[in-house]
Design goal:
By secondary structure, the chain is an alpha/beta fold. The protein has 6 helices and 8 strands, in the order βββαβαββαβαβαα.
Amino acid sequence: MKVGLSYAHNPSSPGACFEDNCEYTYSRMWTKKLLIALAKRGQEYFITSRSDLRGKVEEINAAGCDIAMEIHFNACGGCGASGCETLYHPGSQKGLNYAEVVQQALCKAVGNKYRGTKEGWYKMDRPGTVDFYGDEDGDEKPDYFLRATNCPALILEPEFIEHTDVIMAKINAGTDAIADAVEEIANGSYEEVELDEGSDD
């Protein structure tokens, strides 16, 4: 199985921040550790050299990857929330299956709150739900990284950026767990999860 990887965000747009800690910095750290963990297990990987979202997806598609991943970190402005979750393309059966395998392994390794697998909508604006003030139904669209890759793609959120102590303490255990999950997916040794009726693959 060939794993396509890219860093979350980029230096000029570093993603969610809390105080001086930003997503991009910690995504790079975790992704580099994940590359080592995948290599140790003999798993093939490709990491994009592009920093723009469209370019990342184009390179991952051109590389013929079987699964794509980005490691992000949630933020809530210091509200105290914690936990890990994994996002997949809405309606994708493979995406849901892969997300469940990774989420189970990752959350167990990090040892924080289990926030589950979720459909990945742009800005988490879900159809049929008022997600924020002024939300209008009908303008929702899946996250670009999840929908534009040719292979099933996942966005991993191991922890909230406010908890850098956990992020750094669990970097080895977390990336090892992700690599183990990739092996499980590659071997097909996982149970399928039932997709909600009406979803498309």
